[in-house]
Amino acid sequence: MTVFPESLASDPTDAIPPLEERPPLCAARLTVGVLGRLTGMLLTLLAIGYFTLPAFAAETLRLRGDVTARGDVLSLGDLVEGAGAEMAGKPLFRAPALGATGTIQTRRILDAVAGLGLGPVETGGRVQVAIQRAARRVGAPEIEAALKRTLESGHGLDPRVISIRLDGEAPVLLAPVDLNGAAAALDVVYEPRSRRVTGLISLGERQASLRVSGLVVEMREVAILARAIRNGEPVTAADVTLERRPRESTPVDAQANLAAIAGEVAQRALGAGTLLRVGDTAPPELVARGEAVSIVYETPGVSLTMRGQANEAGRLGATVTVLNVASKKVLQAVVVGPARVSVGPAAPQRQASAALPAPIR
Predict the structure, then answer these.
(1) Does the pLDDT of residue 21 top 70, yes or no?
(2) What is the CATH number of domain 61-134?
(3) For residue 311, what are the contacts with CB-CB under 8 A and spacing of at least 6?
Protein backbone atom coordinates (compact mmCIF):
# COMPACT_ATOMS: atom_id res chain seq x y z
CA MET A 1 0.00 0.00 0.00
CA THR A 2 1.53 3.36 -1.21
CA VAL A 3 1.35 6.20 1.27
CA PHE A 4 1.46 9.85 -0.23
CA PRO A 5 2.87 12.60 1.94
CA GLU A 6 0.49 14.88 3.57
CA SER A 7 1.49 17.78 1.37
CA LEU A 8 0.17 15.88 -1.65
CA ALA A 9 -2.99 14.49 0.26
CA SER A 10 -4.64 17.86 0.58
CA ASP A 11 -7.88 18.81 -1.02
CA PRO A 12 -7.50 18.15 -4.73
CA THR A 13 -9.40 21.27 -5.60
CA ASP A 14 -6.52 23.36 -4.23
CA ALA A 15 -4.30 22.45 -7.29
CA ILE A 16 -6.85 23.55 -9.91
CA PRO A 17 -7.40 27.27 -10.14
CA PRO A 18 -10.96 28.36 -10.29
CA LEU A 19 -12.38 29.22 -13.76
CA GLU A 20 -12.44 32.95 -14.44
CA GLU A 21 -15.76 34.12 -15.59
CA ARG A 22 -15.51 36.62 -18.52
CA PRO A 23 -18.24 38.78 -19.92
CA PRO A 24 -19.66 37.56 -23.22
CA LEU A 25 -18.14 39.03 -26.43
CA CYS A 26 -20.18 41.54 -28.27
CA ALA A 27 -19.66 43.20 -31.69
CA ALA A 28 -18.55 46.85 -31.66
CA ARG A 29 -20.71 49.27 -33.51
CA LEU A 30 -19.17 50.76 -36.69
CA THR A 31 -19.36 54.49 -36.35
CA VAL A 32 -18.15 57.27 -38.64
CA GLY A 33 -15.12 57.75 -36.41
CA VAL A 34 -14.14 54.08 -36.56
CA LEU A 35 -14.45 54.00 -40.33
CA GLY A 36 -12.34 57.15 -40.65
CA ARG A 37 -9.57 55.65 -38.49
CA LEU A 38 -9.55 52.43 -40.53
CA THR A 39 -9.40 54.37 -43.79
CA GLY A 40 -6.49 56.44 -42.53
CA MET A 41 -4.57 53.32 -41.54
CA LEU A 42 -5.08 51.75 -44.97
CA LEU A 43 -3.92 54.90 -46.76
CA THR A 44 -0.83 55.05 -44.56
CA LEU A 45 0.06 51.44 -45.38
CA LEU A 46 -0.42 52.06 -49.10
CA ALA A 47 1.78 55.15 -48.99
CA ILE A 48 4.52 53.27 -47.16
CA GLY A 49 4.42 50.51 -49.80
CA TYR A 50 4.40 53.00 -52.69
CA PHE A 51 7.54 54.79 -51.53
CA THR A 52 9.47 51.83 -50.18
CA LEU A 53 8.91 49.20 -52.91
CA PRO A 54 10.78 51.17 -55.65
CA ALA A 55 13.68 51.54 -53.26
CA PHE A 56 13.82 47.80 -52.77
CA ALA A 57 13.43 47.23 -56.53
CA ALA A 58 16.26 49.66 -57.32
CA GLU A 59 18.62 47.56 -55.27
CA THR A 60 18.10 44.58 -57.62
CA LEU A 61 20.87 44.30 -60.22
CA ARG A 62 19.90 42.98 -63.64
CA LEU A 63 22.10 42.23 -66.63
CA ARG A 64 21.21 44.27 -69.69
CA GLY A 65 20.62 42.72 -73.10
CA ASP A 66 22.57 43.73 -76.20
CA VAL A 67 24.41 47.00 -75.63
CA THR A 68 25.38 49.87 -77.96
CA ALA A 69 28.55 51.60 -76.77
CA ARG A 70 29.08 55.26 -77.60
CA GLY A 71 32.58 55.58 -76.14
CA ASP A 72 35.85 53.70 -75.74
CA VAL A 73 34.96 52.27 -72.29
CA LEU A 74 32.02 50.22 -71.02
CA SER A 75 30.87 51.23 -67.55
CA LEU A 76 28.89 49.31 -64.94
CA GLY A 77 25.75 51.22 -65.91
CA ASP A 78 26.19 50.21 -69.57
CA LEU A 79 26.02 46.53 -68.66
CA VAL A 80 23.93 46.31 -65.46
CA GLU A 81 20.61 47.91 -64.51
CA GLY A 82 19.96 49.20 -60.99
CA ALA A 83 23.57 49.98 -60.12
CA GLY A 84 22.73 53.45 -58.81
CA ALA A 85 24.09 56.79 -59.91
CA GLU A 86 27.27 56.59 -57.82
CA MET A 87 28.36 53.19 -59.15
CA ALA A 88 26.99 53.36 -62.72
CA GLY A 89 30.02 55.24 -64.03
CA LYS A 90 32.59 52.67 -62.85
CA PRO A 91 34.64 51.52 -65.91
CA LEU A 92 34.68 47.77 -66.48
CA PHE A 93 35.75 46.86 -70.02
CA ARG A 94 37.10 48.39 -73.22
CA ALA A 95 34.53 48.81 -76.01
CA PRO A 96 35.03 47.35 -79.52
CA ALA A 97 36.54 49.43 -82.32
CA LEU A 98 34.37 52.01 -84.11
CA GLY A 99 31.59 50.29 -86.03
CA ALA A 100 32.63 46.82 -84.79
CA THR A 101 30.67 44.27 -82.73
CA GLY A 102 31.95 42.05 -79.92
CA THR A 103 30.74 39.95 -76.97
CA ILE A 104 31.49 39.73 -73.23
CA GLN A 105 30.93 36.53 -71.28
CA THR A 106 28.39 36.89 -68.48
CA ARG A 107 30.75 35.33 -65.92
CA ARG A 108 33.30 38.09 -66.54
CA ILE A 109 30.65 40.74 -65.87
CA LEU A 110 29.58 38.96 -62.66
CA ASP A 111 33.20 38.78 -61.50
CA ALA A 112 33.65 42.48 -62.15
CA VAL A 113 30.45 43.34 -60.24
CA ALA A 114 31.53 41.16 -57.30
CA GLY A 115 34.88 42.94 -57.30
CA LEU A 116 33.05 46.22 -56.68
CA GLY A 117 31.41 44.72 -53.58
CA LEU A 118 27.92 44.64 -55.06
CA GLY A 119 25.31 41.92 -54.62
CA PRO A 120 24.15 39.23 -57.03
CA VAL A 121 23.06 40.06 -60.58
CA GLU A 122 20.02 38.59 -62.29
CA THR A 123 21.30 37.36 -65.67
CA GLY A 124 18.01 36.23 -67.22
CA GLY A 125 19.80 33.12 -68.48
CA ARG A 126 22.23 35.03 -70.71
CA VAL A 127 25.68 33.51 -71.14
CA GLN A 128 27.08 36.52 -73.01
CA VAL A 129 26.21 40.10 -73.95
CA ALA A 130 26.67 41.49 -77.50
CA ILE A 131 28.36 44.90 -77.68
CA GLN A 132 28.09 47.13 -80.76
CA ARG A 133 30.23 50.25 -81.01
CA ALA A 134 28.30 53.19 -82.42
CA ALA A 135 30.04 55.22 -85.12
CA ARG A 136 29.38 58.04 -87.54
CA ARG A 137 29.82 56.80 -91.11
CA VAL A 138 31.03 59.22 -93.75
CA GLY A 139 30.28 57.46 -97.04
CA ALA A 140 31.08 58.05 -100.70
CA PRO A 141 28.52 60.88 -101.26
CA GLU A 142 29.96 63.00 -98.41
CA ILE A 143 33.53 62.21 -99.49
CA GLU A 144 32.78 63.23 -103.08
CA ALA A 145 31.07 66.45 -101.93
CA ALA A 146 34.11 67.40 -99.81
CA LEU A 147 36.48 66.83 -102.74
CA LYS A 148 34.24 68.84 -105.09
CA ARG A 149 34.23 71.82 -102.72
CA THR A 150 38.03 71.87 -102.63
CA LEU A 151 38.34 71.37 -106.41
CA GLU A 152 35.97 74.30 -106.96
CA SER A 153 37.78 76.68 -104.62
CA GLY A 154 41.33 75.54 -105.38
CA HIS A 155 41.21 74.55 -109.06
CA GLY A 156 38.15 76.31 -110.49
CA LEU A 157 36.22 73.17 -111.42
CA ASP A 158 32.43 73.45 -111.61
CA PRO A 159 30.99 70.89 -109.17
CA ARG A 160 27.74 70.76 -111.17
CA VAL A 161 29.40 69.20 -114.24
CA ILE A 162 31.87 66.80 -112.64
CA SER A 163 31.69 63.50 -110.82
CA ILE A 164 34.44 61.69 -108.90
CA ARG A 165 34.94 57.96 -109.29
CA LEU A 166 36.58 56.94 -106.03
CA ASP A 167 39.10 54.13 -106.09
CA GLY A 168 38.35 50.93 -104.20
CA GLU A 169 35.07 49.62 -102.85
CA ALA A 170 32.95 52.49 -101.50
CA PRO A 171 35.37 54.04 -98.97
CA VAL A 172 33.88 54.85 -95.54
CA LEU A 173 35.34 57.06 -92.82
CA LEU A 174 34.36 55.88 -89.32
CA ALA A 175 34.28 58.52 -86.58
CA PRO A 176 32.88 58.90 -83.04
CA VAL A 177 29.17 59.72 -83.05
CA ASP A 178 29.74 63.00 -81.21
CA LEU A 179 32.16 64.27 -83.86
CA ASN A 180 29.86 66.69 -85.68
CA GLY A 181 30.37 68.95 -88.64
CA ALA A 182 30.85 68.44 -92.38
CA ALA A 183 33.74 66.42 -93.73
CA ALA A 184 36.59 68.46 -95.24
CA ALA A 185 39.08 67.51 -97.96
CA LEU A 186 42.65 68.45 -97.01
CA ASP A 187 45.97 68.17 -98.84
CA VAL A 188 44.14 67.78 -102.19
CA VAL A 189 46.31 67.18 -105.27
CA TYR A 190 44.73 67.36 -108.74
CA GLU A 191 46.42 66.48 -112.06
CA PRO A 192 44.52 68.12 -114.98
CA ARG A 193 46.06 65.85 -117.63
CA SER A 194 45.24 62.55 -116.01
CA ARG A 195 42.29 64.06 -114.10
CA ARG A 196 43.45 62.13 -111.03
CA VAL A 197 42.72 63.55 -107.56
CA THR A 198 43.94 62.55 -104.09
CA GLY A 199 43.13 64.04 -100.68
CA LEU A 200 42.66 63.49 -96.96
CA ILE A 201 39.04 63.43 -95.78
CA SER A 202 38.96 64.79 -92.23
CA LEU A 203 36.47 65.41 -89.41
CA GLY A 204 37.23 67.93 -86.69
CA GLU A 205 40.87 68.84 -86.25
CA ARG A 206 41.98 65.64 -88.00
CA GLN A 207 40.38 63.67 -85.16
CA ALA A 208 39.21 61.19 -87.78
CA SER A 209 40.68 61.02 -91.26
CA LEU A 210 40.84 58.83 -94.35
CA ARG A 211 43.05 59.21 -97.43
CA VAL A 212 41.21 58.70 -100.73
CA SER A 213 41.91 58.93 -104.46
CA GLY A 214 39.86 58.87 -107.61
CA LEU A 215 39.22 60.09 -111.14
CA VAL A 216 37.43 63.33 -112.01
CA VAL A 217 34.85 62.71 -114.74
CA GLU A 218 33.16 65.52 -116.70
CA MET A 219 29.41 64.99 -116.89
CA ARG A 220 26.58 66.33 -119.05
CA GLU A 221 22.81 66.11 -118.87
CA VAL A 222 21.00 64.07 -121.51
CA ALA A 223 17.34 63.35 -122.23
CA ILE A 224 16.21 59.78 -121.56
CA LEU A 225 12.83 58.33 -122.53
CA ALA A 226 10.83 57.05 -119.58
CA ARG A 227 8.55 54.87 -121.74
CA ALA A 228 8.38 53.35 -125.19
CA ILE A 229 6.99 55.62 -127.93
CA ARG A 230 5.62 54.62 -131.33
CA ASN A 231 6.64 56.20 -134.61
CA GLY A 232 4.73 59.45 -135.10
CA GLU A 233 3.53 59.60 -131.48
CA PRO A 234 3.87 62.98 -129.72
CA VAL A 235 6.40 63.25 -126.89
CA THR A 236 5.24 64.94 -123.67
CA ALA A 237 7.29 66.41 -120.85
CA ALA A 238 6.31 63.47 -118.62
CA ASP A 239 7.84 61.03 -121.14
CA VAL A 240 11.38 62.40 -120.75
CA THR A 241 13.79 62.69 -117.82
CA LEU A 242 17.25 64.22 -117.55
CA GLU A 243 20.19 62.10 -116.45
CA ARG A 244 23.85 62.94 -115.89
CA ARG A 245 26.16 60.84 -118.04
CA PRO A 246 29.94 60.96 -118.58
CA ARG A 247 30.61 63.39 -121.45
CA GLU A 248 33.26 61.15 -122.99
CA SER A 249 30.76 58.34 -123.57
CA THR A 250 27.82 60.54 -124.61
CA PRO A 251 26.99 61.22 -128.30
CA VAL A 252 27.70 64.76 -129.39
CA ASP A 253 24.17 65.17 -130.77
CA ALA A 254 22.46 64.00 -127.56
CA GLN A 255 19.45 66.14 -126.72
CA ALA A 256 19.03 67.82 -123.32
CA ASN A 257 16.42 70.56 -123.79
CA LEU A 258 13.17 69.18 -122.34
CA ALA A 259 11.18 72.25 -123.34
CA ALA A 260 12.21 71.83 -126.98
CA ILE A 261 11.49 68.10 -127.02
CA ALA A 262 8.02 68.34 -125.49
CA GLY A 263 5.41 68.54 -128.24
CA GLU A 264 7.60 66.98 -130.93
CA VAL A 265 6.78 63.63 -132.49
CA ALA A 266 8.91 60.49 -132.68
CA GLN A 267 10.50 59.91 -136.10
CA ARG A 268 10.88 56.20 -135.39
CA ALA A 269 9.88 53.68 -132.73
CA LEU A 270 11.82 54.44 -129.55
CA GLY A 271 12.17 52.11 -126.56
CA ALA A 272 12.11 53.02 -122.89
CA GLY A 273 15.54 54.17 -121.69
CA THR A 274 16.57 55.49 -125.11
CA LEU A 275 18.98 58.42 -125.07
CA LEU A 276 17.35 60.95 -127.40
CA ARG A 277 19.52 62.27 -130.22
CA VAL A 278 18.90 64.97 -132.78
CA GLY A 279 16.63 63.47 -135.41
CA ASP A 280 14.85 61.04 -133.05
CA THR A 281 12.12 63.63 -132.61
CA ALA A 282 10.91 66.55 -134.72
CA PRO A 283 8.18 69.19 -134.65
CA PRO A 284 4.81 67.92 -135.90
CA GLU A 285 3.79 68.58 -139.51
CA LEU A 286 1.36 71.50 -139.64
CA VAL A 287 0.65 71.13 -143.33
CA ALA A 288 -0.10 67.79 -144.99
CA ARG A 289 0.39 66.96 -148.66
CA GLY A 290 -2.79 67.65 -150.65
CA GLU A 291 -4.33 69.60 -147.77
CA ALA A 292 -6.30 72.79 -148.40
CA VAL A 293 -4.37 75.71 -146.94
CA SER A 294 -4.77 79.44 -146.51
CA ILE A 295 -2.11 81.42 -148.39
CA VAL A 296 -1.36 84.71 -146.66
CA TYR A 297 0.27 87.59 -148.57
CA GLU A 298 1.46 90.42 -146.37
CA THR A 299 3.35 93.63 -147.12
CA PRO A 300 3.33 96.90 -145.20
CA GLY A 301 -0.25 98.14 -145.46
CA VAL A 302 -1.50 95.13 -147.48
CA SER A 303 -2.79 91.75 -146.22
CA LEU A 304 -4.41 89.22 -148.56
CA THR A 305 -5.62 85.65 -147.97
CA MET A 306 -6.05 83.16 -150.82
CA ARG A 307 -7.16 79.58 -151.11
CA GLY A 308 -4.47 77.05 -151.90
CA GLN A 309 -3.47 73.41 -151.86
CA ALA A 310 -0.24 72.05 -150.41
CA ASN A 311 1.86 70.01 -152.78
CA GLU A 312 4.02 68.68 -149.91
CA ALA A 313 3.96 68.35 -146.18
CA GLY A 314 5.79 70.75 -143.94
CA ARG A 315 6.53 71.61 -140.31
CA LEU A 316 6.52 75.03 -138.68
CA GLY A 317 9.02 77.25 -140.50
CA ALA A 318 9.53 74.85 -143.40
CA THR A 319 9.34 76.03 -147.02
CA VAL A 320 6.80 74.12 -149.11
CA THR A 321 5.21 74.47 -152.54
CA VAL A 322 1.52 75.31 -152.72
CA LEU A 323 -0.92 75.74 -155.57
CA ASN A 324 -2.94 78.97 -155.80
CA VAL A 325 -6.35 77.56 -156.64
CA ALA A 326 -7.55 80.77 -158.30
CA SER A 327 -4.51 81.54 -160.49
CA LYS A 328 -3.26 77.95 -160.88
CA LYS A 329 0.21 79.18 -159.99
CA VAL A 330 2.61 77.15 -157.85
CA LEU A 331 4.19 79.25 -155.13
CA GLN A 332 6.87 78.68 -152.53
CA ALA A 333 5.55 79.48 -149.05
CA VAL A 334 6.61 79.20 -145.43
CA VAL A 335 4.50 77.20 -143.00
CA VAL A 336 3.33 79.58 -140.27
CA GLY A 337 0.58 77.52 -138.62
CA PRO A 338 -1.81 74.62 -139.03
CA ALA A 339 -2.97 74.63 -142.70
CA ARG A 340 -1.57 78.13 -143.08
CA VAL A 341 1.34 79.36 -145.22
CA SER A 342 2.79 82.76 -145.96
CA VAL A 343 4.18 84.30 -149.15
CA GLY A 344 5.69 87.72 -149.73
CA PRO A 345 6.76 89.89 -152.64
CA ALA A 346 10.30 88.48 -152.43
CA ALA A 347 9.20 84.88 -152.12
CA PRO A 348 10.31 82.78 -155.11
CA GLN A 349 7.50 81.74 -157.41
CA ARG A 350 7.34 79.35 -160.31
CA GLN A 351 4.66 78.59 -162.86
CA ALA A 352 3.39 75.04 -163.14
CA SER A 353 0.51 73.25 -164.72
CA ALA A 354 -2.26 72.01 -162.47
CA ALA A 355 -2.00 68.65 -164.19
CA LEU A 356 1.74 68.49 -163.45
CA PRO A 357 2.19 69.29 -159.76
CA ALA A 358 5.61 70.15 -158.42
CA PRO A 359 7.66 67.11 -157.39
CA ILE A 360 7.69 66.19 -153.75
CA ARG A 361 10.95 66.95 -151.94
Answers:
(1) no
(2) 2.60.480
(3) 289, 290, 320, 321, 322, 323, 330, 357, 358, 360
